Amino acid sequence: MTERFAVILAGGRGERFWPLSRSSRPKQLLDLVGEKTLIAQSVDRLRGLVEPEKILVLTNADLVGATRAAVPSLPPENVIGEPVGRDTAPAVALAAAIVKSRAPEDAVFAILTADHVIGDVPVFQRTLAAAMDVAAADSVLVTIGIRPFEPSTAYGYIEVGEHVPSVGGVRFRRAIRFVEKPDRPTAEQYVSGGCHVWNSGMFIWRVSTIEHSLAKHCPDLGSRVKGWALKAGSSDFPACIADEFGTCTKISIDYAVMEKADNIVVAEAEFSWDDVGSWPALERHFPADARGNVHIGDVAAIDCSRNIVYSRGRLTALVGIEDAIVVQTDDVTLICRRESAQNIKSLLAHLREAGRNEVL
After folding, report:
1. Between the ranges 103-107, 234-238, 299-303, where is the mean pLDDT highest?
2. Between β-strands 294-302 and 308-319, what pairing exists: parallel, antiparallel or unpaired?
3. Are 165 and 172 in contact (CB under 8 A)?
4. Average pLDDT over residues 38-65
5. Is 23:53 a contact under the CB 8 Å cutoff?
6. Backbone angles phi, psi at 97, to 5 degrees
7. What is the distance between the alpha carbons of residues 13 and 60, in angstroms, rounded to a whole number?
8. How far is CA 258 from CA 8, 24, 189, 243, 263, in A?
9. Binning pLDDT at 50, 70 and 90, where does residue 12 land?
10. Above 80 in pLDDT, residue 104?
């Protein structure tokens, strides 16, 4: 049986969840939804499918210690720090090199992310196992597509075509093209047409398949996999990555490979999925009162509607407030309109320019 690995990308900063998410404790290290951190939940979902010693986590170099503490079931050496963020394609190349160095034969590995909320774990595992079987059997790039339940403009889409044989009860279709985040009218067309799925950012492939694809479509990264694989596990490897990783082309795996490749197969997800990208996403995971308010923590509200309030450790009281997001932490209070939640990153840029690094 082909060896199975999983690589969890945990390099994001989760800025849209500021002020709860900070550079030293970003979204994946928070227990936003559930009793465990998002990265711990990502590891738990793989239990019984991928052995702990074959689960790798790629994160920022300054978060290695905190990440290891969050996932104590993994060997410490399986949490690897990137010296600088270069987007997902260099991370995939690094992951391919490490897996190649550890697997004597051509192994399959999944690229997953640390900040998704996924329900129906048995269904997720069945889908991922089927995708790994498809990737092991053929030189294809497999991804998991999410059936859209609304015309979201926050996600990329994949146009899908003909069905290919199902595996383990999981349906697969050929990918026609990857589409960037659309405007609202286009998203509505995609959803009503039934031929588009959301791009989940989860990918599955053999080491040789992605190595070949990188060499073909992004030679700068393709050329690095073999060299890094030869050094992976040696005492020279950390210095090698420290010297070379920052010189990689900064590009996503979507741009580098997926939008160019013609050998992509999409597994149709039947599990619930959410990338909880910003504060408004929490209303999908917490109950609302009769007026549409979601309160997390110690909150009192009168004559309020459609607010999301996060206040653990102290009382936050609202009177006559509508359509707002209110977040209390020990040192920062955030108040913004729901419709402005995506602009929190702009606020952080303003604070950064003002030298307010102590709150970032």
Report:
1. 299-303
2. parallel
3. yes
4. 97
5. no
6. -65, -40
7. 9
8. 18, 31, 22, 27, 9
9. confident
10. no
